[in-house]
Write a structure and sequence with these properties.
This protein is α/β, with parallel strands linked by helices and 676 residues long. It is built from 7 helices and 56 strands. The protein has a 34-stranded mixed sheet that branches.
C-alpha cells in the first residue's frame, strides 16, 4: 500500500473508532470525504470492504436463526394449547368441575414437554357453548435468545399461545328435565327410554340403575354423579355403542315462545268464561198431547194452531199455518203416542216455550226453527225425540235428572239435526244406554253452562253423545265435561278453539275433534276406572288428532285416588290412547301444555293400565313432573314424534317411552371442538 493510501486508511480508521476528524494531527474533514478519498486507492480495497460487510451479514444470519427457532417454539406451544383446551373442555363437559378440567389440560401439557407452571387453564364465559362456558388454555414458553447476548440485550423472550374449546350443541332432546333442584330423570324397576334420533337431557341428575335402560346417542346431566352405573351398561347408543355423556345444563326450548305466550293469554280468557243467560220468554198456554182429544184440540186452538189425531199409529199432528212466532207454555206427550210438531213449517219460525218439553210417549218430531225453551227438555225411557236444524236456547229444567237439574235430560234417543246453534245454560245429561246427537255435519255452535251440580256435559255408562263440527261458531263450556260413565262414547266437535272453564273427566271413550283445547281445570282419563268402548263404529279409548290441550289445573280437583294431584292423567283401562299434535299453525308439535302457573303443582301421570299410548308431539310441563308407573307406556307411533319436557321425569315399574323426533330445539350433549 502506498504511503498516501496508508495515511488515508489510518484516517478512516480513526473515524470508524469515533475520533474527531482532525485529531492526532489529521486535518478536519467529513467522513464522506475520507471514504471518497479512500476509494481512489485501488490496492487492497476488496479486503477492506469484505472486512466491514462480514459482521453485518453474520448479524442478519443470526436474526434469521433466532426467528426460525421462535416459530418452532410457537408452533409447539400452539399445538399444546389446542390439545390442552380440548382435553380440559371434555373433562369439564363430563364432570362440570374445574379440578378435572385443569388436571386433564396439565397432563396434556406435560406430555408435550411443558411444565404445569407454563400453562394456565380457565373458564371463558365470553364464548357461549352447549355446556354454558368454554375452556381456555394459555401456554407461555420462554425462548432463549443468543444474538442479543453479544450486544448486551435480553437473554430470553416469552412465546404465548392460546386456544379455546367447548361443547357444541348436539342432537335435539326428546326427553328433558328442566328443574335444576329436582330429581331430574329417574328410572327404576325395569323402566326404559328409547330416544333413537334425539338426546336425553337433564338440568339435574340422571339415574339409570342396573335393570333399566336408556337408548340414545347423546345424554347430558348437570348435577350429581355420572349417570352410567359402575357395574352395568344401562345407557347405550341404538347400535350398542357408547353414548356421548356430558355434564352441562339444558335450556327450556319453549320458554318465551309465541305458542306458550298465546297459551297463557288464552287460559286467562277462558278463566273468565261464564254460562250463557237463561232463556226468558212470556208465559204461554200449556198443551198436553194425550188421549183426551178434545182437551188437546182446545189447547192447540188457544195457541192459535190446530191439532189432529190419526188413530192409525196414534199420531198427533200439530200445525200453525201462517204463524211466524208460536207462544206455548209446556209441551208434553203421553205414553204410546207420537207427535208430529208443525211439519213443513219454515225454519224461520220462532217457538217460545215458557215451560219445558216432556216426551213420555213413543216419538216426537219437531220442525226446525228457533226454540226458546225456558224449562228444559226431558225425554223418557224408550222414546225417540227429533228436532230439525235450528237455534236452540234451552233453560234449566225443573225436573230432577240423576240428582241435578240440566237444560237437557236425555234418557232415551234425542237427535238435533244440523247445522244448529245450541245455547244450553245448564248443560246436558245423557243417561246410561242413551243416544244424544247435538247437530250433524259442520256449521254448528255450542255454548254450555253448568247444571246445578257443576257438570256442563255429563254421561252415564254405555251412553253415546255426538256433536257436529264447528266452522264459524264457538265451542264454549262453562262447567265440567264429565264422561264418568264406563263404556260411554263422547264425540267432541272439531273447532278452531274449544274453551272449557272446568275439568274433563272420563271413564269411557272420547274422540276429540281437531283444534285447540283450553281447559281451565284438570284432565283425568280413567281416574274413576273405565276404559275403552265402542265409539263411532270402532273400539277406542281416547282419540285426539291435530289437537293441542292447554291445562291450567285451576279450581277443584276431580276425585279419584289414581289421578290425585295430576293436571293430566291417563290410567285405568286406557290402553290405546292416541294424541296427535297439529303439524301447522301456532301450536305445531305441541300435544299437551301443562300448568304455566308455577304455584299449581300438578303434573302429568301415565299410570297402571295406560299401556300402548301413542302421543305425537310435545308434553310440556315446565313447572311440574311427568310420571310413568305400573307398566304404562307411551310412544310416538310409526311416523310421529314424542317429546317429554318437564320439571322432572320419573319412570318406574316396567314403564317405557319410545321417541323418534326431528326437532329444531337443541338440548343434547354434542361434541367438544376447538372454537378459537
Amino acid at each position: 500500500m502506498t504511503p498516501e493510501c496508508k495515511g488515508r486508511y489510518a484516517a478512516l480508521s480513526s473515524v470508524a473508532k469515533g475520533l474527531a476528524p482532525g485529531a492526532s494531527g489529521l486535518r478536519s474533514a467529513t467522513p464522506g470525504s475520507f471514504v471518497g478519498a479512500f476509494t481512489k486507492c485501488e490496492s487492497g480495497a476488496v479486503a477492506v470492504i469484505a472486512g466491514l460487510a462480514i459482521p453485518v451479514l453474520l448479524g442478519f444470519a443470526g436474526l434469521a436463526l433466532e426467528y426460525g427457532q421462535h416459530l418452532v417454539v410457537r408452533a409447539e406451544a400452539q399445538r399444546t394449547a389446542d390439545l390442552a383446551a380440548h382435553a380440559g373442555a371434555v373433562a369439564y363437559s363430563r364432570t362440570g368441575g374445574t379440578g378435572p378440567m385443569v388436571d386433564a389440560a396439565n397432563r396434556v401439557a406435560r406430555l408435550n414437554g411443558f411444565s404445569d407452571g407454563e400453562i394456565v387453564v380457565e373458564l371463558d364465559a365470553s364464548i357461549p357453548t352447549a355446556s354454558g362456558t368454554a375452556v381456555r388454555a394459555t401456554v407461555t414458553a420462554p425462548k432463549l435468545l443468543l444474538l442479543p447476548r453479544l450486544v448486551g440485550g435480553d437473554t430470553s423472550v416469552d412465546v404465548v399461545a392460546s386456544a379455546v374449546a367447548g361443547a357444541l350443541g348436539g342432537a335435539p332432546a326428546c326427553i328433558q328435565a328442566l328443574d335444576p333442584d329436582g330429581s331430574g330423570i329417574s328410572l327404576s324397576g325395569g323402566a326404559s327410554v328409547q330416544s333413537q334420533d334425539c338426546a336425553v337431557a337433564s338440568n339435574a341428575g340422571v339415574e339409570a340403575p342396573c335393570g333399566t335402560s336408556i337408548i340414545t346417542e347423546d345424554l347430558s346431566y348437570n348435577t350429581g354423579p355420572h349417570p352410567l352405573p359402575e357395574y352395568c351398561q344401562t345407557i347405550r347408543t341404538p347400535d350398542g355403542g357408547e353414548t356421548q355423556i356430558v355434564r352441562q345444563p339444558t335450556s327450556d326450548p319453549l320458554a318465551g315462545s309465541d305458542a306458550i305466550t298465546r297459551a297463557s293469554e288464552q287460559i286467562a280468557m277462558t278463566e273468565e268464561l261464564s254460562a250463557p243467560d237463561l232463556a226468558v220468554v212470556a208465559t204461554g198456554p200449556d198443551i198436553d198431547f194425550g188421549w183426551n182429544q178434545g182437551a188437546t184440540i182446545a189447547q192447540a186452538e188457544a195457541i192459535g194452531c190446530t191439532a189432529s189425531f190419526t188413530y192409525s199409529g196414534n199420531i198427533w199432528t200439530f200445525s200453525c199455518p201462517g204463524l211466524s212466532t208460536v207462544n206455548i207454555g209446556r209441551i208434553t206427550l203421553g205414553g204410546g203416542l207420537t207427535l208430529d210438531f208443525n211439519p213443513g213449517a219454515s225454519q224461520e219460525t220462532i217457538y217460545n216455550l215458557s215451560g219445558g218439553i216432556r216426551n213420555n210417549g213413543a216419538r216426537m218430531t219437531f220442525a226446525g226453527g228457533t226454540y226458546n225453551v225456558a224449562e228444559g227438555i226431558n225425554t223418557g225411557g224408550g222414546s225417540i225425540t227429533e228436532f230439525g236444524a235450528g237455534t236452540y236456547r234451552i233453560g234449566r229444567s225443573t225436573q230432577n235428572c240423576s240428582g241435578a237439574y240440566y237444560s237437557i235430560c236425555n234418557t232415551s234417543e234425542l237427535v238435533f239435526d244440523g247445522p244448529s246453534d245450541f245455547v244450553l245454560p245448564s248443560g246436558v245429561w245423557n243417561s246410561g244406554g242413551s243416544v244424544l246427537t247435538l247437530g250433524t255435519g259442520t256449521g254448528n255452535s255450542f255454548r254450555f253452562g253448568p247444571s246445578s251440580d257443576g257438570d256442563a256435559i255429563a254421561l252415564g255408562g254405555g251412553s253415546q253423545t255426538f256433536m257436529g263440527d264447528v266452522d264459524d261458531g264457538v265451542f264454549e263450556v262453562a262447567g265440567w265435561i264429565d264422561g264418568g260413565g264406563g263404556g260411554s262414547c263422547l264425540v267432541i266437535p272439531e273447532a278452531e278453539l274449544h274453551e272449557i272453564n272446568g275439568s274433563i273427566v272420563a271413564s269411557g271413550a272420547i274422540r276429540f275433534g281437531a283444534g285447540l283445547y283450553v281447559v281451565n281445570g284438570y284432565m283425568h282419563l280413567g281416574g274413576n276406572g273405565g276404559g275403552s268402548a265402542m265409539c263411532g263404529g270402532e273400539t277406542i279409548s281416547v282419540e285426539a288428532e291435530n289437537t293441542t290441550f292447554v291445562i291450567s289445573a285451576a279450581g277443584v280437583e276431580p276425585g279419584g285416588w289414581s289421578c290425585r294431584d295430576q293436571a293430566f292423567c291417563v290410567t285405568a283401562g286406557y290402553s290405546n290412547v292416541r294424541f296427535t299434535a297439529p303439524q301447522s299453525g301456532p301450536f305445531t308439535d305441541l300435544a299437551v301444555i301443562g300448568p304455566l302457573d308455577p304455584s299449581r303443582n300438578a303434573g302429568a301421570l301415565f299410570a297402571a293400565g295406560a299401556s300402548g299410548s301413542q302421543m305425537s308431539g310435545a308434553l310440556y310441563f315446565p313447572n311440574d313432573p311427568i310420571t310413568l308407573t305400573g307398566g304404562a307406556s307411551a310412544n310416538a307411533g310409526s311416523a310421529g314424534c314424542l317429546q317429554l319436557i318437564a320439571a322432572e321425569i320419573t319412570m318406574s315399574g316396567g314403564t317405557s317411552v319410545a321417541s323418534e323426533c326431528d326437532l329444531p330445539q337443541s338440548g343434547g350433549a354434542g361434541q367438544v371442538a376447538l372454537l378459537r
